[in-house]
Write a structure and sequence with these properties.
Oaf_C, mainly beta, eight-stranded mixed beta sheet, 3 helices, single chain
């Protein structure tokens, strides 16, 4: 995949039509490893970022984050279509045909890792390194609760209204103070829609058939509460 700066990144896609899920993995230009898992059965999307730590600033080797949001219909092609995708030229550098708008999400709820399996069985594997940093949104939680998911796995995080002096981490000067962290990631290339072509039979009857995919690129920015700025050192004025 060609990145905006002209660099090329390798992306891997996997589909499991039995479990009705797909996953996609790529390395961002800053070295972060980003995985997107779409669980169609549970209508759940899981973004995981493994961010390289700054050892000289007292951070561990890497930091893991998981952001979980509702998966809407027609966002990504179905898993059985993805499983049928065959790459004729694996070394071809691809560029998305459509750039979808940046989505800015306020992740105001924490998810309990040990109870998360009933929201999606994939949370256990995907978010294992991010046990203390799994976030979602209140509006998505409402949707899942209506589907019968147990609400005890969710905990609403402190908001600006609860803590009036809560700032964005990049404006916060004290490394040990709580703040609102921002993390951005880009999915450079993913199959977002199926293409249909029309064919006419001998009797003139027109029918349509699947004849390919449309690829998209989409960026996401997640805002979420951290108990100390030390957990958000990438979000600084540059």
């Amino acid at each position: 995949v060609r990145l905006p700066g002209g660099q090329v990144a390798e992306e891997s896609l996997h589909a499991d039509s039995g479990a009705d899920c797909i996953s996609l993995e790529l390395r961002e230009p800053d070295g972060a490893l980003v995985t997107l898992t779409a669980d169609f059965r549970q209508e759940v999307k899981i973004f995981r970022a493994l961010i390289l730590g700054e050892l000289e600033r007292g951070q561990s080797q890497f930091q893991a984050l998981c952001f979980i949001t509702r998966l809407h219909r027609n966002e990504i092609i179905p898993s059985e279509s993805m499983a049928k995708l065959r790459q004729k030229n694996p070394r071809t550098v691809r560029q998305a045909e459509e750039v979808r708008g940046l989505e800015h999400l306020r992740m105001d709820v924490a998810v309990n890792f040990s109870k998360g399996a009933q929201l999606s069985s994939h949370i256990h594997n995907v978010c294992a390194e991010a046990k203390e940093a799994i976030y979602t949104r209140e509006e998505d939680v409402k949707f899942w609760l209506e589907k019968g998911v147990d609400g005890s796995m969710f905990e609403v995080l402190p908001q600006t209204s609860d803590l009036p002096d809560l700032q964005r981490c990049k404006l916060c000067t004290d490394r040990w103070k709580p703040c609102i962290c921002s993390y951005s990631l880009n999915i450079e290339w993913y199959p977002c829609m199926l293409k249909y072509c029309k064919t006419r039979d001998a009797g003139g009857k027109v029918s349509s058939y699947k004849c390919g995919i449309r690829s998209c690129q989409k960026g996401y920015t997640f805002d979420y509460y951290v108990p100390q700025k030390q957990l958000c050192l990438w979000d600084e004025e540059t």
